[in-house]
Specification:
about 240 residues; alpha+beta; five-stranded antiparallel sheet; 13 strands; about 15% helix; about 30% strand
Amino acid sequence: MTSTNPSRPPRTVLVTVVLAVVVTFAALLTVFLLRSRQETSSAAGPLPDVPPVSGSSTTGDCPEARCVVLASVDVGGSTVELLADPEGGSARVRVDGESDSATVLESTIAAMGAKVGSDSLRCVAGATSVCLVRGSIEDGAVGEVVVTRGGAWGPADRPYFSNAGTIALDDVARDEVPEVVVVRHDCGATDSVSSCEVAPVVAAVFEVGGAELGCTRRYTSPSDIRGWPEVRVRESELRPCS
């Protein structure tokens, strides 16, 4: 007959005690790790908000930051850009020169309802650099000029209207200061709108300041003028406008 040691607990009791110790230790370890992780996160603070990344063509110079660069031209060390919203409205002219800050000019023709596009900006560098912004409206085209004055860019004094749809820059006087050439139908005050639309055209030339220099002879259509649509006029062709 096998004898038993009354001071030694049964094996099943030992196994139960060991399992209980293991489970208790594991629970304590889990609580310790979770508490350490929470304290670390609290010390680091919340994750910062990441601002959205705007497209490279978007600029804050236009309303609601919706404007894009439609055209860009290098003029005498400055970069002139035409900005507008995706519909071609709310136009701006931005000039980046040698200084850190850019010059932003609001468009006059935009207030007239003109729509601009990628072909709306023309610039000529010279003794006085000039840029022309032209846009389309229901009855033709309108244009405005920005010029350098004392090293700074600014708007000229007046807009231009062409009922034949053509406005251009050309150094007519050959003095390194381009003039504004406006092609218009040669209509009388009593002509109706329909008859004016088919009337012959002339190219009227204006100084940058707005003074009228003269007009060419009459042409059957704008495409008959030299260089159309970037029309070219010689000073010898000019005569008083009727």
